[in-house]
Amino acid sequence: MSATIIESLLEKTNDFSLEETLVFLSERYPNQVVFSTSFGQEDQVITDFIAKSNTDITVFTLDTGRLFQETYDVFHKTLKKYKRPIEVYFPEAAAVENLLKEKGPNSFYDSVENRKECCFIRKVVPLRKALSGNAVWITGLRAEQSENRHDLNLFEYDANFEIIKFNPLLKWSLEEVELYLQENNVPQNALHKQGFVSIGCAPCTRAIFPGEDIRAGRWWWESSHKECGLHGAKKE
């Protein structure tokens, strides 16, 4: 069933522009299309497209409680520029309290398992709440961001969250993203000019060095696949 839906969406939107696809989705799934933003460069491009599309697409973000001040700054600038609400989802307070009580504030540095536990509490659980009851989840994933994302499709079914995923910038290059932001005067995170490409929680993100992989600055102390569980998360 899900495969048939994906094939249908790919066929119907084959000749659509990004903005036309957003309009199509909002009309096909009224009030059931959501976009998750972390205020990174890709997400800011999509936010700009959504604002221009004048659709009922809901924009939301996950506040993990460990974000950079610069991320909050671009959050605020984005609200002022587009004058559209951005829903905010937080982790469950009790879960965070128990984690810090049992393992302290920096347990994620100790092991991959601990880091994934923190990501699960602060990101995956709130995301599951944000996606519940919706039909389409728009993401800012790009194929060149990591090896894990090379084989993604424009539309795909995420069985873990039981939702259709739309990756509109999948084939965009970083250069195309940066050019769009500049030409359209879109608010950006000040950390991008300091070598930060992929920006997550402050304790888990560093600037990358010339020649390093785009995701090298995320969980830099690990040799894992550099994912937090939002994309490809297992049910628990």
UniProtKB/TrEMBL annotation:
<comment type="similarity">
    <text>Belongs to the PAPS reductase family. CysH subfamily.</text>
</comment>
<keyword id="KW-0560">Oxidoreductase</keyword>
<dbReference type="InterPro" id="IPR004511">
    <property type="entry name" value="PAPS/APS_Rdtase"/>
</dbReference>
<dbReference type="InterPro" id="IPR002500">
    <property type="entry name" value="PAPS_reduct_dom"/>
</dbReference>
<dbReference type="GO" id="GO:0046872">
    <property type="term" value="F:metal ion binding"/>
</dbReference>
<dbReference type="Pfam" id="PF01507">
    <property type="entry name" value="PAPS_reduct"/>
</dbReference>
<dbReference type="GO" id="GO:0019379">
    <property type="term" value="P:sulfate assimilation, phosphoadenylyl sulfate reduction by phosphoadenylyl-sulfate reductase (thioredoxin)"/>
</dbReference>
<dbReference type="GO" id="GO:0019344">
    <property type="term" value="P:cysteine biosynthetic process"/>
</dbReference>
<feature type="domain" description="Phosphoadenosine phosphosulphate reductase">
    <location>
        <begin position="32"/>
        <end position="207"/>
    </location>
</feature>
<dbReference type="GO" id="GO:0043866">
    <property type="term" value="F:adenylyl-sulfate reductase (thioredoxin) activity"/>
</dbReference>
<feature type="binding site">
    <location>
        <position position="118"/>
    </location>
    <ligand>
        <name>[4Fe-4S] cluster</name>
    </ligand>
</feature>
<keyword id="KW-0963">Cytoplasm</keyword>
<feature type="binding site">
    <location>
        <position position="119"/>
    </location>
    <ligand>
        <name>[4Fe-4S] cluster</name>
    </ligand>
</feature>
<dbReference type="InterPro" id="IPR014729">
    <property type="entry name" value="Rossmann-like_a/b/a_fold"/>
</dbReference>
<comment type="pathway">
    <text>Sulfur metabolism; hydrogen sulfide biosynthesis; sulfite from sulfate.</text>
</comment>
<feature type="binding site">
    <location>
        <position position="204"/>
    </location>
    <ligand>
        <name>[4Fe-4S] cluster</name>
    </ligand>
</feature>
<feature type="active site" description="Nucleophile; cysteine thiosulfonate intermediate">
    <location>
        <position position="228"/>
    </location>
</feature>
<dbReference type="GO" id="GO:0070814">
    <property type="term" value="P:hydrogen sulfide biosynthetic process"/>
</dbReference>
<feature type="binding site">
    <location>
        <position position="201"/>
    </location>
    <ligand>
        <name>[4Fe-4S] cluster</name>
    </ligand>
</feature>
<comment type="function">
    <text>Catalyzes the formation of sulfite from adenosine 5'-phosphosulfate (APS) using thioredoxin as an electron donor.</text>
</comment>
<dbReference type="InterPro" id="IPR011798">
    <property type="entry name" value="APS_reductase"/>
</dbReference>
<dbReference type="GO" id="GO:0004604">
    <property type="term" value="F:phosphoadenylyl-sulfate reductase (thioredoxin) activity"/>
</dbReference>
<keyword id="KW-0411">Iron-sulfur</keyword>
<keyword id="KW-0408">Iron</keyword>
<keyword id="KW-0479">Metal-binding</keyword>
<dbReference type="GO" id="GO:0051539">
    <property type="term" value="F:4 iron, 4 sulfur cluster binding"/>
</dbReference>
<dbReference type="GO" id="GO:0005737">
    <property type="term" value="C:cytoplasm"/>
</dbReference>
<protein>
    <recommendedName>
        <fullName>Adenosine 5'-phosphosulfate reductase</fullName>
        <ecNumber>1.8.4.10</ecNumber>
    </recommendedName>
</protein>
